[in-house]
Task: inverse folding
């Protein structure tokens, strides 16, 4: 049994679960480093691993108009093993504008390491590039740089484009990245650079480095994707400037500050099997010890210590010891402080091989398309996989460019910003271009000190967690040790309680909470009437500094945009109901949180009384009704000891706890469908209830029951209900001759494709009335972590 299975079986708190997971991973890391007793404990402590999650989102396409649906599938990945992860059960998806304000937000349930959903673009949206991002609550502990991000473009043809006001003259920027972190006087080091324009597009160019005497020190030029590198030895007392000329624009950029003393590292291939890492320093401790830690996927893979000889030493690392993808190499000085850091990319040895074939290369309108898919590993052995597929029309603005899961997991997810053509680094053995990418967009890995995550956010391992804060109504101060309750009334209501901690925080655990509902929070008003509960927004409020490219509209798009706009309006006019079809949700368990009650009373089986007091006294023999000074109280029969409990039971109506029994007595019994009684002690969190009495109305809507004035009622969005992708059938002549127009530019969206034991499956869908070029993109991952994608092109014409 894995640690995660133990946590679920024991149903321990999420906070304790975090501690157990961290402890287990620390033991694993310690075992890895046990053979390196010479490595100081101060360094080991900085590498205690914790569970890392990655999310990858496959969208149906990348270009949209208002009124269209964005279809997507989320793949949850264990960042340590690069395999599907069932750790979190909820993912958060947002569409953010340039000001980081959310255009759309949704919570997506994750089941068996994946989930899918859709977002409809509002008609009021402005034209521009937007960021689709996805994360879990656990991922928030490590900052927004670890979130999945993808740029999507939206053009509102009915509104003036904000991008029309962008100045036509482009400006340019060159940024320099010394290998390992810093330039040091008198030490030769590699300097990488990247050139971009004001639209955040890469620019290929050449330039020179000059000193303060205007003498040219060296020439440099880009290699690929606006990036390049050169060797550079800064001299003592010299200042340097880079000069470039681009389209009659001259750029002068100062070289990064040169340290008088410091450390420099240089990584290079020692052979096909080994890496050589040279460390050089001009510090006073030129004969001291230095340490090298190599980390892959947040696990330590290699540790070495050397002694500097006249300020220089060399480490050799076997490439086979590194995991596929990104590895971080950090050099520590004798005082155990990190002084140099850089990353290295090892091309993965294996990928999921997906082969997608069609029964034809060309189809007519309203024709059936039959596809065959096969999945195999690097040894041509067929394997089953979890996959998703989109088939959409390509044109002047919607190209076939897409993020693929393979390059994201092994490359893009560990680098900063958007990677130009990430597939290039997998298809081409271009060591120089790859190293330039590591030195530029991977340079953010360097830090003066290693920071550990604070674990402020608890993982949602069983379902959605709603977080709130209990405060004093008078001064707003947080209040601890207050028992609070959250209810979502309904036929299958949800109920949870939580006791506030020292900061006033309460956390309610809900399972399979879908759609928009009213949630009611309250304390026990009879003893805690001076407090209020405020529910927190579960979405992230931090953003990274990644620059998003500006959407540049082209006159060449006008014809295609007009056709696309007409098609969207036709689809929304003629098929509005089909776009609002949702998958039926089957309740996992129709039982209440307390399971099977000891007694159940359906009031329609009895002669109806006009008062609830009569009902309770005449029919519900397990409950003793008491009246003292005009205040009613219930006592539940204790089956175990054949007597009534001394304390009050938990009383509910449609899942809402009731603390004033007089309100139950005054309630109309004709609105109550059934009464359930639990005749034993029930432990709910840290509270003990001497029995439970639960009333259910016919509609599960409280039947007009009066809420206490101190109760807080808010509208809250649970997990997203899944839409069904609509595709018409054209199986016979009558269907093909239907006069209803079909202008779908996304022919099909299949988020839940599974291959069989032989690694194969057959897929089919129908073309629409649109003619042109179409592409099918399929991608996914196996349970063993093999990821891959495949594309297929075909045409739709008047004649097949």
Result:
């Amino acid at each position: 049994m894995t640690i995660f299975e133990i946590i679920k079986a024991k149903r321990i708190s999420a906070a304790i679960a975090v501690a157990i997971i961290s402890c287990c991973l620390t033991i694993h890391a310690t075992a890895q480093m046990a053979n390196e007793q010479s490595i100081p404990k101060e360094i080991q402590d900085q590498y205690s691993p914790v569970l890392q999650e990655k999310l990858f989102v496959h969208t149906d396409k990348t270009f949209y108009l208002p009124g269209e649906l964005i279809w997507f599938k989320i793949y949850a990945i264990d960042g340590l093993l690069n395999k599907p992860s069932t750790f979190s059960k909820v993912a958060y998806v947002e569409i953010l504008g340039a000001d980081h304000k959310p255009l759309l937000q949704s919570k997506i349930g994750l089941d068996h390491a994946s989930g899918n959903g859709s977002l409809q673009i509002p008609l009021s949206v402005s034209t521009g590039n937007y960021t689709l991002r996805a994360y879990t609550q656990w991922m928030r502990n490590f900052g927004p740089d670890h979130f999945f991000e993808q740029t999507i473009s939206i053009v509102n043809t009915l509104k003036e484009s904000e991008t029309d006001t962008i100045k036509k003259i482009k400006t340019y920027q060159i940024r320099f990245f010394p290998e390992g972190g810093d330039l040091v006087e008198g030490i030769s080091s590699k300097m990488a650079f990247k050139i971009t324009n004001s639209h955040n597009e890469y620019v290929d160019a050449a330039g020179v480095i000059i000193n303060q005497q205007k003498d040219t020190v060296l020439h440099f030029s880009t290699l690929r994707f606006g990036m390049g590198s050169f060797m550079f030895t800064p001299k003592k007392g010299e200042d340097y400037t880079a000069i470039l000329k681009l389209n009659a624009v001259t750029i002068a950029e100062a070289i990064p500050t040169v340290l008088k003393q410091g450390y420099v590292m240089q990584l290079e291939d020692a052979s096909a099997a080994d890496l050589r890492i040279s460390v050089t320093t001009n510090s006073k401790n030129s004969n001291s010890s230095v340490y090298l830690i190599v980390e892959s996927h947040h696990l330590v893979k290699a540790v070495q210590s050397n002694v500097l000889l006249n300020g220089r030493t060399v480490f050799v690392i076997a490439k086979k010891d590194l995991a596929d993808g990104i590895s971080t190499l950090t050099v520590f000085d004798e005082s155990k402080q990190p002084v140099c850091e850089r990353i290295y990319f090892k091309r993965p040895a294996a990928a999921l091989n997906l082969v997608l074939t069609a029964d034809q290369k060309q189809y007519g309108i309203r024709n059936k398309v039959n596809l065959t898919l096969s999945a195999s590993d690097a040894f041509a052995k067929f394997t089953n996989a979890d996959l998703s597929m989109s088939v959409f029309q390509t044109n002047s603005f919607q190209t076939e460019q897409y993020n693929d899961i393979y390059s994201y997991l092994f490359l893009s997810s560990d680098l900063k910003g958007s990677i130009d053509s990430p597939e290039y680094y997998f298809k081409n053995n271009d060591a120089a271009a790859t190293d330039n990418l590591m030195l530029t967009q991977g340079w953010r890995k360097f830090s003066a000190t290693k920071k550990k995550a604070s674990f402020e956010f608890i993982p949602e391992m069983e379902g959605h967690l709603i977080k709130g804060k209990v405060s004093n109504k008078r001064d707003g101060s947080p209040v601890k040790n207050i028992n609070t309750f959250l209810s979502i009334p309904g036929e299958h209501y949800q109920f949870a309680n939580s006791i506030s901690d020292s900061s006033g925080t309460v956390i309610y655990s809900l399972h399979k909470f879908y759609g928009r509902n009213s949630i009611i929070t309250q304390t026990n008003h009879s003893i805690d009437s001076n407090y209020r509960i405020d529910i927190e927004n579960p979405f992230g409020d931090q953003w990274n500094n990644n620059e998003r490219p500006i959407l540049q509209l082209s006159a060449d798009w006008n014809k295609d945009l007009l056709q696309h706009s007409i098609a969207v309006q036709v689809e929304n006019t003629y098929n509005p109901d089909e776009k609002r079809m949702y998958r039926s949700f089957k309740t996992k368990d129709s039982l209440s949180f307390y399971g099977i009650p000891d007694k159940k009373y359906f009031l329609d089986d009895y002669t109806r009384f006009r008062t609830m007091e009569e009902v309770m006294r005449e029919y519900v023999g397990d409950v003793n009704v008491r009246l003292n000074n005009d205040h009613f109280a219930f006592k539940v029969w204790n089956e175990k000891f054949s007597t009534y409990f001394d304390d009050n039971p938990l009383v509910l109506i449609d899942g809402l706890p009731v603390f004033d029994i007089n309100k139950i007595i005054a309630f109309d019994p004709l609105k109550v469908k059934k009464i359930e009684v639990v005749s034993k002690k029930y432990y709910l969190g840290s509270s003990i209830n001497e029995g439970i009495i639960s009333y259910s109305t016919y509609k599960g809507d409280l039947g007009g029951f009066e809420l206490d004035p101190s109760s807080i009622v808010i509208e809250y969005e649970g997990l997203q209900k899944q839409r069904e992708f609509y595709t018409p059938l054209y199986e016979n002549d009558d269907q093909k001759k239907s006069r209803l127009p079909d202008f779908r530019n996304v022919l099909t969206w299949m988020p839940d494709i599974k291959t069989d034991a032989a690694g194969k499956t057959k897929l089919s869908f129908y073309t629409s009335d649109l003619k042109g070029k179409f592409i099918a993109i399929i991608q996914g991952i196996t349970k063993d972590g093999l990821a891959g994608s495949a594309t297929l092109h075909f045409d739709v014409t008047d004649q097949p």
About this structure: The longest strand covers residues 672-684. The two ends are 56 Å apart (CA to CA).
